Automatic annotation (TrEMBL), chain A:
Subcellular location: Cell membrane
The name this protein goes by in its record: Chromate transport protein ChrA
A cellular component term, taken from the record's GO annotations: plasma membrane
Pfam families per UniProt: Chromate_transp
Signal peptide, first to last residue: none
GO molecular function, a single term: chromate transmembrane transporter activity
Transmembrane domains' residue ranges: 57-78, 85-110, 116-136, 148-181
Keywords tagged on the record: Cell membrane, Membrane, Transmembrane, Transmembrane helix
Family, as annotated: Belongs to the chromate ion transporter (CHR) (TC 2.A.51) family.
Membrane topology: Multi-pass membrane protein
UniProt source species: Paenibacillus pini JCM 16418
UniProtKB/TrEMBL annotation, chain B:
Main location: membrane
Protein's membrane topology: Multi-pass membrane protein
InterPro entries per record: CHR_Transporter, Chromate_transpt
Localization: Cell membrane
A single GO cellular-component term on record: plasma membrane
Taxonomic placement: Bacteria, Bacillati, Bacillota, Bacilli, Bacillales
Organism: Paenibacillus pini JCM 16418
Membrane-crossing residue ranges in chain numbering: 6-24, 45-66, 72-97, 104-125
UniProt KW keywords: Cell membrane, Membrane, Transmembrane, Transmembrane helix
Protein name: Chromate transport protein
Position of the signal peptide: none
GO function terms (MF aspect): chromate transmembrane transporter activity
Family statement: Belongs to the chromate ion transporter (CHR) (TC 2.A.51) family.
Length: 204, 141
């Protein structure tokens, strides 16, 4: 029995590897763009996952650290073929883009004094600013719906601009505020409940 | 040197909440303080990393690794970025999905998301200064 299970797992892992190898190079501008490509490949084409599972995987991948594309690949790989599947999927999705980037590095570092390359880079930089700013706006639309997240964002930006603060501290500060607010709202709920119960006692 | 590259990106990989863009200030901090790149090279790195296909964080790691230690450097840096993803997603697949609905976890994530937006906005700001779009507007020290 186990002799048929193992080749099966390896076969599945190889299929995962080639699937993600094809999807990898299409990830222009970050992972969100490929989510629907992955969705199509695995729920419609290969029918390995239900769209319910896909939604769950996407939510978890967005919350965990790391690029969402790589995370989705890892979770799908694990779900379908265990740890070998996870590793094959990560390598599959990362390899093409890493190789492309390496070739670019090798070419660019040899030609970095070339005026044409310099001109091209000068033209690219502003578009990258737009790309990054758009990422902030897109996340902001999902998250900044109340005064509290707004004030966290504004405080953090001011801290980053005015002090040589380590950027990781910013994440820590945000997490702390989230937990403190949760603790505060929990205890105020308790207080209200206590008061209500006391009120009931008085009534009786 | 190769190990430092690997270790630095390994640590960054564990912290990269909110995807690659939020990691840009952290990578800048690491790359500049180790002397792997100067600010000029860093802005070129981000320009190339952003225009290439693939995750920005991974691409930046490849570029920074390459500049600091050639081919071997980029391999070590990108493995450093990849490994935490593998470990974390294994943990997520086995443990984390059970605590995802826990209200403390949700509260921590709710606080972290606005901070991530601040980091991304700051990355856009640094890139604006370095790309020479707005000269002499630098407030940061």
């Amino acid at each position: 029995m186990s002799s048929t299970v193992i080749p099966n797992q390896i076969q599945l892992s190889l299929k995962l590897f080639t699937s993600f190898l094809k999807i990898g190079p299409t990830t222009f501008g970050g992972g969100y763009a490929i989510l629907h490509v992955i969705d199509k490949e695995f729920t419609e084409h290969r029918k390995w996952l239900s769209s319910q599972e896909m939604t769950e995987i996407t939510a978890l991948s967005g919350a965990a650290p790391g690029g969402i594309g790589v995370n989705v690949a890892a979770l799908i790989g694990y779900r379908i073929a265990g740890i070998p599947g996870l590793l094959c999927s990560i390598f599959g999705i990362s390899m093409p883009t890493t190789l492309i980037m390496l070739m670019l590095c090798a070419t660019a570092s040899g030609l970095s004094d070339n005026p044409l390359i310099q001109a091209a880079l000068m033209g690219i930089k502003p578009t990258i600013v737009a790309l990054i700013a758009y990422a902030a706006v897109r996340m902001g639309k999902q998250t900044l719906k109340h005064p509290l997240p707004w004030s966290i964002t504004v405080t953090c930006i001011l801290l980053l601009l005015c002090f040589p603060i380590h950027p990781l501290l910013i994440l820590g500060i945000g997490t702390m505020i989230g937990l403190v607010v949760e603790a505060a709202s929990n205890s105020s709920k308790h207080n209200i409940r206590d008061q209500q119960e006391q009120g009931k006692h008085h009534m009786m | 040197m190769l190990f430092t590259l690997f270790w630095t990106f390994f640590k960054i990989g564990f912290m990269s909440f909110g995807g690659g863009y939020a990691m840009l200030p952290i990578m800048e901090h690491a790359a500049l303080s180790h002397g792997w790149l100067n600010t000029q090279q860093y802005s070129e790195a981000i320009a190339l990393a952003g225009m290439s296909p693939g995750p920005v964080a991974m691409n930046s790691a490849v570029y920074i690794g390459y500049t600091a230690g050639g081919w071997a450097g980029s391999v070590f840096a990108s493995l450093g970025m990849m490994l935490p993803s593998a470990i974390i997603m294994f943990l997520v697949a086995t443990i984390f999905y059970r605590v995802y609905d826990n209200h403390w976890v949700q509260a921590a994530l709710n606080g972290m998301k606005p901070a991530v937006i601040a980091l991304i906005a700051y990355a856009a700001y640094t890139m604006t200064i370095q790309s020479g779009l707005v000269k002499g507007l630098s407030i940061s020290t």
